[in-house]
């Protein structure tokens, strides 16, 4: 989920970035503090005789490590055992040795609240430096101090970090004396940059499973697969009633460690209304794979039966970077010329996945919301493009921060949406949301510094503050058009679905509006049959005779082409038939109010976690309503020129289809289509099935997304509370 990822991102800042002192301390006072930074290398080995928390006398244990109240690492879950073996390694940066390492062990319960097994503390100041130490920690529970809960075995290595010491010196040099509540932010440290920028891309194609274990009474399973690399996770689709599933799914993960990493893979059997069954697990050690080469892996499942077949490719990182103003790729004429040449028409068939180049200048924000009791905030920015996420540094105690950072991304899909979110950093808890903007790449005007009004979490209305951005997009139109007909990239970190009365109502109304369009069309046709209006019925009768007598298949795309052209001329002539959807906007605001109430009452509604079966059904129903409503709205918005690029692409496609159907007999077209379908798997055994029309429509925004991506006009006298009062009920 986004919230958990932002918390993790703030932890990276807290642990990796050099921090300024918020209280205006002198250089002498700083030198007296413990300025040295330490790296703590932890090897989580195993657990011994852990407490049983499941009915079968076992547990599914995992471990959380915390420092300063913040979670810094979570281990994988070992299923159905009281003596788990992890053998996991992680590195944590420590600011003060007086902070204790807090270890908590939980039993994982799918769909329910995880059970607490026990906890322990490790005093970092007592560790000998520069030497590995084996540590055995006995678990305890304050509520049951006499109960034996088992133990955890670790190996720890504490070393001073020279790079952090240099960062501390940089902090001392750049420190300027100021008032009590004002500080000056320092430059992003090299270590912070290293923590954000990935070293490569791991491309994974999940092909199939073979001879999996039967988990259901009918002798079959409903398998799906979970992948995890560090904090990145991916879940495959569910293949019903099979022991030899064919997934053929492709996704990419970021590789942060130059030495590689371990991909944890678990296979599960989906069970409606109860906890999913564990089928088996396996791992892929990326350090053993050669780069720039595709590896076909047949992995036997441990603790289960069968195999998984994967294709894994390690490639160099895309052009993602962070720099300070005024240094930028487009400011250098030679680099700019190289970028324009890379995405020119002459290279339209070179590296089809590299669609374009995006440069984002995060300049400053003004008038932000005060999130701290002092009347100030500690704002930082998260810049996201699909699964690529980068952060600015934090500007402490400031409602008008200046970041002056430049971020560059490779564009894989020109229909992606750039999201810029402002958070308030809180050391002792997760970051507070201050505002957000969502900007479709196709709506960006290059080189223009623009003030974007920050929106609320649902992107339906304004919140306090504006952010100044300057964005440049360079892309190859041919590559972008081809990419439009390919599957859309799935976002790995998304907000978890939950039951919402307003969401159900909103999706029902949206679907009802789409269905009513069809019903009204049927009524209109019936009125022509009933001769309610003789002139209209006569015209419809003549048109029916003419079209039926002269009908050819090419007239279908031709009629759609004429409809697109008609709406286009209406728009350019000023007769825009698109209506601002205030109904959807009001429903989204009501939904946000309900979410706020749910957050406040979440502790009082703990019993909802136990109604997992009901929740799954309700979530499925509301998601189906959303899909149906979105499908109808996307078709409508294609012809309404909501996204001109897609409408022009539809015109080109319809023109091509019209010409093909006009000049080529239908039997030849069907013959070519059938030969292609029958030989596709023979020509490309690992091809991923897709529907070009559905992939195209997935790029067209629904009415809800149109409202969310709508840019708000900056009005200093305008406030969210005034807007809500003025909204029609």
From TrEMBL:
Q: Which domain of life is it from?
A: Eukaryota
Gene3D superfamilies hit by this protein:
C2 domain
Task: Give the record's membrane topology.
Answer: Multi-pass membrane protein
Pfam families per record: C2 (PF00168), PRT_C (PF08372)
Q: Where is this protein localized, as stated in its record?
A: Cytoplasmic vesicle, Secretory vesicle, Synaptic vesicle membrane; Endoplasmic reticulum membrane; Recycling endosome
Single GO MF annotation: calcium ion binding
Q: Which GO terms describe its biological process?
A: regulation of neurotransmitter secretion
Principal cellular location given in the protein's record? membrane
Q: Which InterPro entries match?
A: C2_dom, C2_domain_sf, MCTP_C
Which CDD domains does this one have? C2A_MCTP_PRT (cd04042), C2B_MCTP_PRT (cd08376), C2C_MCTP_PRT (cd08377)
Q: Where are the transmembrane segments?
A: 538-566, 645-673
Q: Which UniProt keywords apply?
A: Calcium, Cytoplasmic vesicle, Endoplasmic reticulum, Endosome, Membrane, Metal-binding, Repeat, Synapse, Transmembrane, Transmembrane helix
Start and end residues of each C2 domain: 22-137, 182-299, 342-454
**CC per GO annotation:** endoplasmic reticulum membrane; recycling endosome; synaptic vesicle membrane
Q: Which PANTHER family match?
A: C2 DOMAIN-CONTAINING PROTEIN (PTHR45911), DYSFERLIN-RELATED (PTHR45911:SF3)
Family per UniProt?
Belongs to the MCTP family.
Q: Under what name is this protein listed?
A: Multiple C2 and transmembrane domain-containing protein 1
Origin organism is Phrynocephalus forsythii
Q: What is the lineage of its organism?
A: Eukaryota, Metazoa, Chordata, Craniata, Vertebrata
